[in-house]
Amino acid sequence: MPTDDAAVALVAVRDAPLSVDEVLAAVRHPGCGGVALFVGVVRDHDHGESVTGLGYSAHPSAEATMADVCAEVLASSEAVRVAAVHRRGDLAVGDLAVVVAASAAHRGPAFAACRTLIDTLKERTPIWKHQALADGSSEWVGMP
Question: Which CDD domains match (predicted)?
Fold first, then answer.
């Protein structure tokens, strides 16, 4: 169970580059010996196709959905702090697309909360990816 000072420390959808250090700092807590961090990076391929870049579009409710998911993970885990930030706009291969973190007294609960956080955010947050492929075509990923 979370402590009385448990918190959703940071939630944002941003047009600017993301900072791993900012997310890590947001979840640090003196009672937490375990911090788990997930960083999603734009890769150069998807399902056997070469990817040259992509753009993320976000529904106006995306940040609120992320905040709800963070609160749910916090309430249902042993995490003390959770944070999530996601990019919007055009990104190049190698750019950070999403950074999430969870901290807890021990590593196991931190890993579990972080995994649940990224998996649930990916499933529920209305953010869509438009990939540019090397052959000049493009495709939408994650559309309802």
Answer: MoaE (cd00756)
